[in-house]
Structures are given as structure tokens and as C-alpha cells.
Write a structure and sequence with these properties.
Elements: H1 4-9, H2 14-66, H3 70-84, E1 87-91, H4 106-119, E2 123-126, E3 133-140, E4 143-150, H5 160-199, H6 212-259, H7 264-289, E5 296-298, H8 300-313, E6 319-324, E7 332-334, H9 336-353, E8 357-363, E9 367-374, H10 381-387, H11 396-399, H12 409-419, E10 423-428, E11 435-442
Parallel strand pairs: 6-8
Antiparallel strand pairs: 1-4, 2-3, 3-4, 5-7, 8-9, 9-11, 10-11
Helix pairs in contact: 2-3, 2-4, 2-5, 5-6, 6-7, 7-12, 8-9, 9-12
Bound molecules: adenosine-5'-triphosphate and magnesium ion.
Magnesium ion binds at residues 345, 348-349, 405, 409.
Length: 443
């Protein structure tokens, strides 16, 4: 069953939805039962009790009419009053109106209807001016018979008490339900939290708990997390192991080349060895990217400024700007070395492929952005995806004089972004005309 319009009005959290699923049927049943019960039971009981009183009132009215005069009638009424338990007087005048009843008073309207139906004479009923006594005035041939009838002789005892009981018990039961429900939802929340944190590269303590299905999901998450961690670890170790091991023969080759007779071939070989060495350093940096660095509260603006001053020290110019639009303090939970390295990679690219470079940090309530722009050739939209893959360098011609990279800079940056749960986006810089790279990390 699909009800898309309903979804818009439903609460979003599991907790409130479950509560709603509980509450709506229960409240509906209670309302229906209450209304039916009050109407049927109280109206029914009141009707029966009132019928008995009506018989007595008719008897009193007939007694008045059978008396020769008003004085005698009152005397006979006084004699009746005690056994009947009513207060009866005979008055002059006639009756015009019938009194109204408050609309919520179910038993009251049953009472009025039954009396009017039974007595079949003009009469006035006042059930409102005293909450213990009902005043009934009946038109007889000898005047008006005024009777004071104790209310409890005609009306079933107060239905409000039932309502109060129902409300109190449902409130207590609902409170208990809410407590239990909380406990059921908690493990799901914890699982979601652990999964989110892992997506951001943080491992939080998590123990599967709660109902069978939730526990199973939690256990599955834990083994998945362990598997991924193992894989990352293996990859890292392999890559750094290989790089490391290759270094030794490379160093030997360098030594051999240094003592060899100089010549064109030796020179070329030397360049190749240098390039290999640079590549190995790149691999090592890539492998270290996934290393054991812990996330900590870090000031992203300080990272940007550090990169700025490092760059200026090498004799290149860079514009560093920062904006902070956040209610929190300026700190973000991230792995500072990894983030600095990836921003540095973006800046290095900008310096390599462009001339003018601008680095900006935007601190927002939900995330932090490092934006690197340059005035170089940029990257075609179609090639952006490709450029972020490991070991990919775009068109050779452009790169030849631009220093031999390995093609890992962008993929390291993207790896770091992903391991923080963030993204790396490449685009066109409207300001400078070259590439605009945005490293966005959630906080
Ligand atoms: N700012 C930029 N402007 C123009 N092209 C760029 C820019 N940044 C990267 N590229 C292109 O994307 C390719 C991949 O970049 P990446 O940083 O991954 O590798 P690299 O710079 O070639 O080598 P490395 O960074 O590993 O030394 C580059 O070879 C280059 O062609
Ligand atoms: Mg690069």
C-alpha cells in the first residue's frame, strides 16, 4: 500500500512513527468505547431510574387532583412526601416553558426525555440550578405540583469519574510504552551513528543490542567494518612494503650510476632512477594516507594559513582567505595531517598548472570547505572524473615541462575526503578562469 501524500504528514523518526502506530488505534478504540458506553449505559440506567420516579410523580399528581381542595391536597402530599422521599408542594400558576439541558449532559437529557414522555402533562424540569436536586414542576388541575427529587434517585452516578480513570490509566500506560519504545529504538540509533562515523573514517565503540533483528544488523555491521578495516590495512601495508623494498635496489642503482663513466646513457638512466624515486615517494605518501592518524578537533583556517606560508616560503604567491559562518567554535573533527596533505596536493596542482592561486576556507554549520582556484587551463568536464583516479595524468603534452608527478595528488585528496565522509569536486573557476577544486568535509 503506497500513500505518498500521507508520508508528508507523518513524523520522520522511527520512534514517533511507532508511537503513532500504537496511539492512534488505542485512542480511537477508547473514544468509541467511551462514547458508546456513556450513551448506552448511562442513558439506559438513567431512563430506568427516572421511570420509577415518574410513576411516583404521576401518583402524586393524581393524588392532588383527587383531593377536594388545595388545602387538602397539600395535606395529602405531605403524607406522601416521607414514604416517597420527595419534597412536594402545591403552587398556583401555570407552566409555560421546558428547561433546556446542557448538550454534553447525556444522562440529563435522558432524564428530561423520560420524564416528559412518562408524565404526559405540561411540565418544567430544572436540572441545572442545583447539582444534587432536580426541580420538577407538573401542571395539575389544582395548580402546579412542585417536586424536589434528589438527583441520584434518577441519574446513574457520575460518568466523569470513568473518564478520569480512563485518562489516568492511559496516561500511565502510554508513559510505560514510551519508555519501552525508547529502549527499542536506541540500538538502531546507535547502529546508525556507528555507521555514519565509520563513513567519516572514525571508529566508535559499538556493541550490538536490542531486538533480534537489530542485533543481527549490528553484528553484520561490525563484521563488515572489520573486513573493510582489514582490507585497508592490507592495501596500505602492501603498497608501503613494495615501495620500501624497491627503495633499496634503487639506492644501489644510484650508487652504481654515480661511480659509472659519465655519458648520455648514464645521464638518461639517472633521470629515470630519479623519476622512479619520486614515484615511490608518491606511493608511500598514498599508502600513509590511510594510516593510523586519529581524528582530532582541528582549526581548518590554521591549516590553510600554514599551507599559505609554506607556499610563500618557496617563493610562490598564494591568496588565502577564510569565512566563518557557524554558531559553533571554529574547530572541526578531522585528521589534520591527511587533510593538510590533500589541500596541499590541490595547491601544488594549482601552482603547477596555473600561475595565480587562491585558497579559501569556508566554515559552515554542517561542513567545512577548502576551495582552491587557479588561472591555469583547468580540466575539461569530461576528464574530471578520470583525473581523480590513481596514477592518471592528463595529456602528456601539458605535463611534460610541468614536473613529473605520478598522478596521485587528486586521488589522495579524494581518498582523504571520502574517509572523512566528504567529497572532492572539480569545477571551473569563474574568478580566475582555471580549475576550481572544492574539498568538502562534514563536521
Ligand atoms: N589545477 C589544475 N589545472 C589543470 N589540470 C590539472 C590541475 N590539477 C590537476 N590537473 C590534471 O589532473 C591530473 C591529475 O592530477 P594529480 O594531482 O592527481 O596528478 P599529478 O599532479 O599529475 O601528479 P602528482 O600530484 O601525483 O605529483 C594532472 O596530471 C593534470 O593533468
Ligand atoms: Mg598533482
Amino acid at each position: 500500500m503506497k500513500l505518498p501524500w500521507l508520508k508528508r504528514y507523518l513524523p520522520r523518526s522511527l520512534f514517533s512513527r511507532t508511537l503513532l502506530i500504537f496511539a492512534v488505534p488505542i485512542i480511537t478504540v477508547q473514544l468509541v468505547v467511551t462514547v458508546l458506553f456513556i450513551q448506552r449505559h448511562y442513558a439506559g440506567v438513567t431512563e430506568q431510574m427516572t421511570q420509577a420516579v415518574a410513576v411516583e410523580l404521576i401518583y402524586a399528581a393524581e393524588t392532588v387532583e383527587a383531593a377536594p381542595d388545595a388545602e387538602e391536597a397539600q395535606k395529602r402530599l405531605d403524607a406522601l412526601a416521607i414514604p416517597l422521599g420527595l419534597f412536594l408542594t402545591l403552587e398556583d400558576g401555570t407552566i409555560r416553558q421546558r428547561d433546556s439541558v446542557a448538550f454534553y449532559d447525556v444522562s440529563g437529557s435522558a432524564l428530561v426525555d423520560t420524564l416528559a414522555d412518562r408524565i404526559q402533562r405540561p411540565l418544567a424540569i430544572d436540572i441545572n440550578s442545583d447539582d444534587k436536586v432536580v426541580f420538577v414542576r407538573i401542571q395539575t388541575q389544582k395548580g402546579v405540583l412542585a417536586a424536589e427529587v434528589p438527583r441520584r434517585r434518577m441519574v446513574a452516578s457520575n460518568p466523569h469519574l470513568l473518564l478520569v480513570w480512563m485518562l489516568v490509566t492511559s496516561a500511565v500506560l502510554s508513559a510505560i510504552a514510551v519508555l519501552f519504545l525508547r529502549n527499542q529504538v536506541k540500538p538502531i540509533r546507535q547502529l546508525a551513528h556507528a555507521a555514519e562515523e565509520f563513513g567519516k573514517g572514525r571508529t566508535v565503540r559499538f556493541r550490538p543490542a536490542g531486538a533480534e533483528e537489530i542485533r543481527r544488523a549490528g553484528a553484520a555491521f561490525l563484521s563488515m567494518r572489520a573486513r573493510i578495516e582489514r582490507q585497508i590495512d592490507q592495501r596500505t601495508r602492501m603498497l608501503s612494503g613494495v615501495s620500501h623494498d624497491l627503495r633499496t635496489p634503487l639506492t644501489r642503482m644510484k650508487l652504481a650510476l654515480a661511480v659509472a663513466d659519465p655519458g648520455l646513457e648514464v645521464e638518461e638512466l639517472g633521470r629515470d632512477v630519479d623519476e622512479m624515486e619520486r614515484m615511490l615517494e608518491g606511493f608511500l605518501a598514498f599508502a600513509r594516507g590511510e594510516g593510523a592518524e586519529e581524528a582530532e578537533e582541528t582549526d581548518p583556517i590554521a591549516i590553510a594559513e600554514l599551507i599559505g606560508s609554506d607556499t610563500r616560503r618557496t617563493g610562490r604567491s598564494i591568496a588565502v582567505a577564510s569565512t566563518s559562518d557557524t554558531p559553533q567554535n571554529g574547530l572541526v573533527l578531522l585528521r589534520p595531517v591527511a587533510v593538510k596533505r590533500s589541500v596541499q596536493n590541490l595547491v601544488d596542482n594549482a601552482l603547477t598548472y596555473g600561475g595565480q592561486v587562491a585558497l579559501a576556507v569556508r566554515l559552515l554549520p554542517k561542513f567545512v570547505e577548502f576551495i582552491v582556484e587557479d588561472d591555469g587551463p583547468g580540466i575539461d568536464e569530461a576528464a574530471r572524473e578520470e583525473a581523480m583516479r590513481p596514477f592518471v595524468r592528463l595529456d602528456r603534452a601539458r605535463n611534460q615541462d610541468a614536473g613529473g608527478g605520478v598522478g596521485l595528488g587528486l586521488s589522495i585528496a579524494m581518498d582523504v575526503a571520502r574517509s572523512h565522509g566528504g567529497t572532492l569536486e572539480l569545477g571551473h573557476s569563474d574568478r580566475l578562469g582555471g580549475l576550481r577544486a572544492v574539498l568538502r568535509l562534514p563536521r
